[in-house]
Amino acid sequence: MLFAFGKTQKLPCIHTSAALDVNKNWDRKNLHMFPPQQPDEARRPAEVHHCRRQIKYSKDKMWYLANMIRGMTIDEAIAQLEFNDKKGAKIMKEVLLEAQEMAVRNHNVEYKSNLYVAESFSNKGKYLKRIRYHGRGMFGIMDKVHCHYFVKLVEGLPPKAEQKTGFDQAKNYVEQLKSRTIIHAL
Amino acid sequence: MRCNAEASLEVRYPQPFVVPVRTKKRYFIPPAVGIKGKAAVSADQEAKARAAGVVLRQEYMERAINIACTAGVFDPYIPPEGDARLSSLSKEGLKQRTEQIKQGAASQLAIRKIKEHDAEFTTKAFPVKAQEIFVDAHNALTQFNKEKLHSLVTERCYPEMVRGNRYKTLRWHFVESLEPPKVVHARCPDMVSKGNLYGQVTVRMHSRQTLAVYDRFGRLMMGSEEEPRDVLEYLVLERHLVNPYGMWRLHGKIVPAWAPVKEPIVKTVMIPGPELKPGEEFEELNYEVPKPKAVQWHK
Q1: What region, left, alpha or beta, does residue B53 occupy, with left being phi > 0 and alpha being psi -120 to 50 degrees?
Q2: Contacts of A144 in chain B (CB under 8 A)
Q3: Closest Cα partner for A122 from A46, A51, A29?
Q4: What is the distance of C-alpha B208 from the center of its chain?
Q5: Residue in B32, B166, B217 nearest the CB of A46
Q6: Residues B282 and B62: beta-carbon distance below 8 Å
Q7: What is the pLDDT of residues B6-36, one digit of tens each?
Q8: Which of B31, B46, B89, B128 is a good FRET partner for A58, with 20 to 30 A between their CA atoms?
Q9: Where's it found, cell-wise (chain B) (predicted)?
């Protein structure tokens, strides 16, 4: 196919600049095409992958926010991030709005509220190093931290987590006890 | 005298090599820090190169472009209203047919000019070839065969056909032709300089086609694969007459003002509402969606 994207080869070379060895796999997930569906098949939900690179924020602090919105509907997620006091929340909200706009415009999503956050995570970006001066001629290497943030929006309602009742758990426990056997018995 | 000769012949014995050992380097500067004024460094390098005699040729930011097609349709054909609605047996239908047969004088002139440059052009054989080009071009579009498409379709028409379709699946089928295609209009505009002739011929085609457009996830966006539709089209084909290797290629389509409205896509779309002053409320019942003006446009 003319539009099949080959993987960029990472040749063993010491002269790679910072921009060349960046991983663009998340953006390539948006270019994956599916074959046309038969009329009797269930309608495949649309997926949108979006990311922002080299955000000037810590990946650990971003992790808290990413965990918070995982599994929420997009309206709920945007509302929660809007009234959150952290610096990463504003950036995350921008990313979610961009992804929603992309979904409606390019990926044939019908209703912009009919999306939920399927995957959301952050990881470490490229750090800049600086000197932090201590007393007595000692120094420390200060890292200027950056992080990447990735989000995947899927069309439809978020999947419901199964609610296990106390009775169900008790039943499972009793069944486990009943199914015990004595090994090497006569 | 003797001491001079002795002094000149005096051999220098090698001195013991003493390395001045100072305190060990205790600090570490990361490589990125401390490079201030990179622009100053590059200016120094340029001066050094010039002094050494290295001459850099002036870089011209130019690129030659070959133009092989015109930018649009010159003097577009205005299809008569009610075309293909009236049967040939009624009085109005006969009138239309007679009008259509005697094409305008400018078209006759243009056809004569085209025959000067292209010996094989005839008003009888050309429409068949035009239909073949049309069918081949659309089949190449479904397969996304870029090279074949570029040879069958001009550079102006190519982006209009292909834009937005890259991550979509198209299924198109030409069922049959309801009426034999006909040359309806011809013009010979010249671009930029006077002798640079391009020929543009409009062909009228009435046919039955099926089209289904699936989006990136395989869901049907528009049309259906089983239901064929009757389509009346006015295709514009173009050729660079002066170029001996020029080929007749699809240049565009003319959509008349009285064309029936296309069916909407299988998707709810938000339309921007009216601009309200602060304090006004949006009245849903009285609001009519503004419809676009019925104007002929050519694609």
Answers
A1: left
A2: none
A3: A51
A4: 27
A5: B217
A6: no
A7: 555 667 777 777 777 777 777 776 666 555 6
A8: B31
A9: Mitochondrion
